[in-house]
Design goal:
Elements lengths: L4 E6 L23 E4 L2 H9 L2 E3 L25
Amino acid sequence: MSQATVRVTCAPERLVPRETNPRKHYPPAGAEPVEIARTPHIERLLATGDLIDAAAPPAEAAEPAAAPVKSVAKKAKE
């Protein structure tokens, strides 16, 4: 029985050690993804966002919230 695989890269600005060799790391975001076995450890890394599934559709980026506008109340001269 073959185990399911997944193609992954690291999340942006993350460095994730490989499960089989902690001295090596998964490829950074934007690099060519690698195909690895879908183990419980990899599932946890995918769930926490440390690894990105290359086959999954990209998450829609939320629009940045507008900065709150400070209202400046003019002081009336007495």
